[in-house]
Automatic annotation (TrEMBL):
It catalyses: a (3R)-hydroxyacyl-[ACP] + UDP-N-acetyl-alpha-D-glucosamine = a UDP-3-O-[(3R)-3-hydroxyacyl]-N-acetyl-alpha-D-glucosamine + holo-[ACP]. Belongs to the transferase hexapeptide repeat family. LpxA subfamily. Homotrimer. GO terms for biological process: lipid A biosynthetic process. SUPFAM superfamilies: Trimeric LpxA-like enzymes. Involved in the biosynthesis of lipid A, a phosphorylated glycolipid that anchors the lipopolysaccharide to the outer membrane of the cell. The keyword Lipid biosynthesis applies. This is Acyl-[acyl-carrier-protein]--UDP-N-acetylglucosamine O-acyltransferase. It holds the Pfam family Hexapep. Residues 176-261 form the UDP N-acetylglucosamine O-acyltransferase C-terminal domain. Its EC number is 2.3.1.129. Keywords: Acyltransferase, Cytoplasm, Lipid A biosynthesis, Lipid biosynthesis, Lipid metabolism, Repeat, Transferase. It comes from Rugamonas apoptosis. One of its GO terms (molecular function) is acyl-[acyl-carrier-protein]-UDP-N-acetylglucosamine O-acyltransferase activity.
Length: 262
């Protein structure tokens, strides 16, 4: 039995591994490439210059690779790339990039993307993230590995969210979020370190303590960001067991472009 349902429309120029499954009434365009073991459910549209890796699962009614929601887009062949082993639930909308930025929207590996998530043009999302229902990500946003976006959280364009951060339900983000930080509210406020998430991922007590110290230097010490960066550099040298984690927080402060939630 064919793995492509008789009612699906797959352009003959699309490149699908022979093991790909395509459900009823789905539509796959000519510039789409899909890797082994990926399952495309019913009523899914995959279009644009879209490259999808292996062992992904697309649930019904998603729109993947459509043109960016940007009035500057003028038909350029920008791209969407999706890695391996991602779960993408119902009614998700992922757009391609724009030439004003990297020209590509990207999603890494092993991500769990729940229903009604919007991933706008030029977003860069890492691996092992969780996006709960209705998380809405505007254009040009960068999201690190292991980030959790709770339901109805929304992110302003050009924001950055560091690895292992936790964004609470209905949070509205208009500034950058350093790694490991837990935040919530509208407007967003930092509420400490994502300790439970770090424990689940095998961080040691020494690493977590180092991250907590770094958090206090940024948020509780009264230092300016420049003073905090200097203090973090000193703490990095003094705490070798957590040096990598403290360095990640310090370097993020240097890359933040919209100011940090503070």
């Amino acid at each position: 039995m064919s793995k492509i349902h008789a009612t699906a429309i797959v352009d003959p120029r699309a490149q699908l591994d022979s093991s790909v499954e395509v459900g009823p009434y789905s539509v796959i365009g000519p510039n789409v490439s899909i890797g082994a073991g990926t399952v495309v459910g019913p009523h899914v549209v995959i279009e644009g210059h879209t490259t999808i890796g292996s062992d992904n699962k697309f649930f019904q009614f998603s729109s993947i690779g459509a043109a960016p929601q940007d009035k500057k887009w003028n038909g350029e062949p920008t791209r969407l790339t999706i890695g391996d082993r991602n779960t993408i639930r119902e009614f998700c909308t992922f757009n391609t990039g724009t030439v004003q930025d990297k020209g590509v929207t990207s999603l890494g590996n092993d991500n769990w993307i729940s229903a009604y998530v919007h991933l706008a043009h030029d977003c860069q999302v890492g691996s092992n993230t969780i996006f709960s229902n209705n998380a809405q990500i505007a254009g040009h946003v960068e999201i690190g590995d292991w980030v959790i976006m709770s339901g109805f959280a929304n992110v302003h364009q050009f924001c950055k969210i560091g690895a292992h951060a936790f964004v609470g339900m209905s949070t509205s983000l208009t500034q950058d979020v350093p790694p490991f930080v837990l935040l919530n509210g509208n407007p967003a406020q930092a509420h400490g370190v994502n300790i439970e998430g770090l424990k689940r991922r095998g961080f040691t007590r020494e690493q977590i303590n180092g991250i907590r110290t770094a958090y206090k230097l940024i948020y509780r010490s009264g230092l300016t960001l420049e003073e905090a960066k200097a203090a973090l550099a000193a703490e990095e040298q003094a705490t070798p067991a957590a040096a990598d984690q403290i360095r990640a927080m310090r370097e993020f402060l240097g890359m933040a472009t919209r100011g940090i939630v503070r």
